[in-house]
Design goal:
- It is a single chain.
- By secondary structure, this protein is α+β, with helices and mostly antiparallel strands.
- It folds into 2 domains: 61 residues; 102 residues.
- It is built from 7 helices and 5 strands; from the N terminus they run H-H-H-H-E-H-E-H-E-H-E-E.
- A 5-stranded mixed beta sheet has the order 1-2-3-5-4, with helices on both faces.
- Helix 1 packs across helix 3.
- It is elongated, with a radius of gyration of 18 Å.
- The model has no long low-confidence stretch (mean pLDDT 95).
Length: 185
Amino acid sequence: MIAGLSDRTGRELRGLARVLVRSGYADRSQVEAALTEAVREDAPEVDPAALVPVLITEAVTDLQAEAATWPDETDTDRLDAVLDELEALGLVVVRYCADHHEARQALEAATEAKGLVFFTDTDVWHAVDFGMLELKVWHPDTANVAPGEPLLEDVLALLAERDIPAVFDEGRIETTLNWQRRVAL
């Protein structure tokens, strides 16, 4: 245990470091910034400059050890292929955004977009811990897709083709996958 940290705070900070590193979307400076902010809020008596590198090193070391056992193609590799294909079909794809406002801005900035598929940072963190990633799918006018609509059916078909189990539930697609993204920090 790190001096000055309660067991609970240490677990929470390690958990945050884990999901930030495993997300695969945040670079080292973003991970450091998020952890520094968390340490300042949750453990103001601890020097972030001393603790943050320890948290990152632990998370990266654990991930690298685990990644050595992964298959050559992971669920997240297949997800990336689906997202790339959706982009090629004219949809705007926003990965790891802060919220739906950021995703909407990307959609509005696009010309002739056929729709939007996005997921947030917290969606990824949930996938890291629980193996389920929520994808939101919108029409070009920002309306959610609905059951039976071609846009939704196309996205679900692509996910199925790549062996990513998915169901539409309450305005979003719930995908089941092991979040195994190879990371270099």
